[in-house]
Amino acid sequence: MLTTLKRIVQEVNQIPVLDEALSCLAHRLIEALKVDSCSIYLADYEQQHFILAATQGLASEAVGQVSIGFSEGLIGLIGQREEPINISDAPSHPRFKHYPEVREDLYHAFLGAPIIHQRKVLGVLTLQQREKRRFSEDEEAFLVTLAMQLAVEISNAKARGSINSLAENVPKDWQKSLRGVPGSSGLATGVGFLQNLMVNIHSHVHKRSDNTEEQIENYRLAVKKTQQDMAVLSERIQGEVPDDVRAIFQLYHHLLDANSLGREVEKKIKGGWDAPTSLKMVIENFIRQFQSMNDTYMRERAVDVEDMGNRVLANILGLGNDEATKREPSDHSILIAEEVTAAMLAEFPSEKLKGIVSMRGSNNSHAAIMARAMGVPAVMGLTDVPITLLDQKDILLDGYTGDVIVSPNVTIRHEFEQLILEEQLLSEKIHAQDNLPAMTKDKCQLNLFVNAGLSLESENNINPDSDGVGLFRTEIPFMMRQRFPTEQEQADLYRELLIAEPHKPFTMRTLDVGGDKPLPYFPITEENPFLGWRGIRLTLDHPEIFLVQIRAMLRASIGLDNLSIMLPMITSVSEVSEAKRLIRQAFYEVEEDAKLLGQHLNMPKIGVMLEVPAVIYQLPQLAKIVDFFSVGSNDLTQYLLAVDRNNARVSELYDSYHPAVLSALNTIAKHAEMLQVPITVCGELAGEPGGVVLLMAMGYRKLSMNNHNLLKVKWIVRNISRNESEQLLAKVLTLNNPQDVRDEVNLYLELSGLGGLVRAGI
Fold first, then answer.
1. What is the DSSP pairing of strand 469-473 with strand 447-452?
2. Selected catalytic residue, list 366, 658, 671, 708
3. Looking at 2-16, 158-172, 557-571, 592-606, which range is the least confident one?
4. Model pTM?
């Protein structure tokens, strides 16, 4: 069964047109399972019905014509119950509904399975038999397994089809909205820009073309150019490599011959495909043929075929032999990437960056955090959309809702630009009060700090309106080098930061790599990096790294008194004790050097990040050996809910408004107050409008956030009261559902005149 399943899935996956793929699937299932009929129905949520998309056994003319309501018949029942139905005599079932046009009068046995992708029913897959019988458990399990695999392909095909149609002759007033995960609030308009667009035959997206002659001409010119390139390469390596290696170019020459590859490609072009797509189909077929050969040498030639295909494709697209396009971004670029990285943002001209779309990641992935720190609207987790389809498209990006509108019409664009104008007006009102204190209407004072260190550029632009730096991430200087930075390099950087505003507190977190922040020269391969060797665990295992960094921090603070040191990923009291021992060792060493120079070194305050749930139950013990606590709400949420915050498949489960998270934060605040230990929240929740209201109500008076959010948070604080926020907290702590909490908080913000901070428009 498994071999049959793999064969069917592989064959169906290779068919680019969904209708043809589903028809092939129905045919193959009848052959494999020896049944009389197989049909696939696809859900249409706009019309609230399932439509017959493919069949073998029912009336072929009914395909695309017969629709079944979501609450009608056995198909509707499967969709409602979201589970398979196995019936020996379908016509006798009370939910059976007769559709004369499909001509199923002869069938009795019925087995149907829902096609579900990410909790959404995309369709129904059915088998039917003339005789009365129950399908076996093996048959049922086979159909369910196949439906699960088919769901991903249907989802991908729908996304491809929706955007591909934008390139065809569609009405000008038609556009498509895709939905991702909101990553960074704000609105942006621009043109999709795919950085380092790799030429890859496998990732190229299928496209149709009616201009057969032009496509054939493009293909023939590309082949001619590739043959010339191959001749030059072959000549260049003559005498430098063995003849059998050089003979590979003979394979290239043979495949490029018009009677070999060319005939097949041009046949596909005449079938209505463009040249790149036709090449892709033929090359991938050649690759499969080579990979299936018994001879080891011939199997390895599949790699050469793929390389040759990539070269021809590059020449069709006019990209030469370069690995990547060398385009310059426009002045209004929406950066498109599989996953946005610090290096990518560092390379991109900030004045041209209007928005970010990251195919991987969630609201609290590193990419989203960087976007928020820069004040750039971002949408994450468009995993089911081929990335190349967004390149060079007009895009409207809504970072509040996660909507990405591709090729918008004039009306939608006008409405979107009006919302952007309203957002700018609100920003002006917020900045008009930037010099006023963060004090509520009933005189409750908060201290607002900034998180810094996400990029080298932002390190020198710390907000002067802040009360200091609540979190400086020291990873970037490590990540942007090809080796560990020296003690002097670190000390120079830290000194520059500490003396910028010597009278404001500056908290530096020790090196926190691992998880989603690897070092290029110190790779860590783990099955589950977020539960692995990261943070304090790594640096305690490598005291030589830890001591160099601590000495650099201490040397930078000589003559100053504003440095605090924070330890990340603390799980136990023993980790803090060991870290403090090493800090004391480094302090005595640097203190001796300071005395020789006639200068004074102050012992910095030592604090810990509260981000691993285990420390919630060790707060009294930790309070005896540290000077302050700092809640890392991002990782605390991740670990409490057992959700990888970079995984788009489970990103909906990651929610800082989850009752368990709010309860934990409330508990921490009460314990810190009782233990008389200063406490700060430095996670993303501290910079979110609703989060600010709830954290203040819990008793947190120190919040640290991204630079870009500081004035917004001050605006929120000045427009609410402590008493009202405490009433809101009491109410949300009784709720069981994160969405209910969010709705209640957003309603409060709307009634307080702050709705423009959580949605588009004033």
1. parallel
2. 366
3. 158-172
4. 0.69
